[in-house]
Amino acid sequence: MLHFLDYAVFACTLLISSGIGVYYRFSGGKQSTTSEYLIAGQSMGMIPVAFSLMASFMSAITILGVSSENYTFGTQFTVVNLGFILTTPLCAYIYLPIFYRLKCNSVYEYLEMRFKGKVIRALASFAFTCQMIMYMGIVLYAPALSLSAITGISYTGSILGVGLCCTLYSSLGGIKAVLITDVFQSLLMFGSLIAVIVTGVSQVGSISDVFRISREGDRLEMFNISPDPTIRHTFWSQFIGGAITSATLYGVNQAQVQRLLTIGSLRRSQGSLWMQWPILACLSFLTSFAGLTMYAYYAGCDPIKSGRISKGDQLLALFALDTMGDYPGLTGLFIAGIFSGSLSTVSSSINSLAAVTLEDYIKPLVNVSKGREVFILKGLVVFYGVLSVLIAFVADLLPSGVLQASLTIFGVVGGPLLGLFSLGMLTKKANEIGAVTGFVSSLLLLFWMAFGWPRPPMSTLPSEDGINDYFYLYEISYAWYSSIGLLWTFIVGTLVSLITQRLCSPKPPS
């Protein structure tokens, strides 16, 4: 059972987050203009933006999913952090400068300018909206699952409480409140992981014991260099595939670009992008080590096989209760860290969705006065906050873990979006027909691969005897989806553009 201090720590997290939103509602620019509400009047510093970039997409999914991944399959997933060697310069020096010069509230405005058509902008914006709505459902579901596993508190109440809190401070305080709460919530995530690791290692024996037991259980693996794309995780799928997946987030995703535009100069914005890499890597490695500590602690007595929990995503919550239950307040810190992850992610998502909806759907159709734009944005934030809660209730139907589910969503939609922006920025002859054809066909291909047929069980990826009844495309690891989407969109878009230009060009007189 939880101690009173545990509940107090968690309650303080929600109160402080909400208080930040109230503070920024009545201070500074008071969120009275679209610029203030969406990009903080470009007044933010590098450090809070760097923390927010990390927290926006790595939050509760990282803490629960990566720890479970390392417990179940080993450390191969951690190679994804090396991919930022490729991702960071690509995003900082190719994509970001274009968005920064345009000063667009929606990144999809660029597509209309570049391809001289409204169709491709609408398609890309709609795909992003669907992607983020699904993702918000997962990140609300994840901490609610953990809390119900630890305390027995209502699963429904957990989702409603977190959804209400992040909707409140996001709608009141705008992007500035979101960024500052992200810093606070990031520190809670780090604190909760450190507390779990310290108490867990002390009960296992030592750090060397954790690595020894993990090595004996074949959990220490980073250099599986097999080129087979059907193996779930290899060095190449995590390094290359992970780099491209990260580029879909940090290069062309509305939520992240919007954060980078809150900084007053391009150079400092690029510096913030570089700064978030070590912050993200630290959180990722802490989470991975927490997974190894769990493996060492439960060696010989797996909680899933023994029936104590039903899903791998509940492992870290159970581990926290087993190791910190005798220390009042520490379990509450863990709960606060998990919920902080979802608060930061959902608040970032609903803010960016509000911006996209206003700029891409409402303003092109309706003449909105400057004075009413902020009012509409706040209403949209509330709408998407409520919608995220509704989606969370169906996330429990996902067959795979929260980590793979979230990365699959980003691969299926993010890869084609990255390919679309790359087509516009890296080629001169691409036109709207080619862009639409490449983008739509890429989405169809990836949705077919990811959801067109039941996936092979993880234990048979790849098949040990080399024989199975699954079509080859269904066996390809989800880690490659972004790469496939990028290449397909770019290649098909380029070819169709060249063909249509030749067909539509005027013929010389005979």
Largest sheet: none
Q: Number of folding domains?
A: 1
Unreliable runs: 459-467
User: In CATH, what is the homologous superfamily?
Assistant: Sodium/glucose cotransporter
What name does CATH use for the topology? Answer: Sodium/glucose cotransporter
Head-to-tail CA distance between termini? 89 Å
Order of helices and strands: HHHHHHHHHHHHHHHHHH
So what's the CATH class?
Mainly Alpha
Describe the structure.
It is a single chain. The protein has 510 residues and is mainly alpha-helical. The chain has a single domain (4-399), classed as Up-down Bundle (Sodium/glucose cotransporter), CATH 1.20.1730. It is 72% helix and 0% strand. The protein is built from 18 helices and no strands. Helix 4 (84-102) packs antiparallel against helix 11 (266-297), helix 5 runs antiparallel to helix 6 (118-151) and helix 6 runs parallel beside helix 12. The longest helix is centred in the middle third of the chain and has 50 residues, at 155-204.
Question: Outline of this structure?
Answer:
It is a multi-pass membrane protein. The protein is mainly α.
Write the layout of secondary structure elements.
Layout: H1 4-25, H2 34-39, H3 46-72, H4 84-102, H5 109-115, H6 118-151, H7 155-204, H8 207-216, H9 235-250, H10 254-260, H11 266-297, H12 315-324, H13 330-362, H14 370-392, H15 402-426, H16 432-451, H17 472-475, H18 481-504
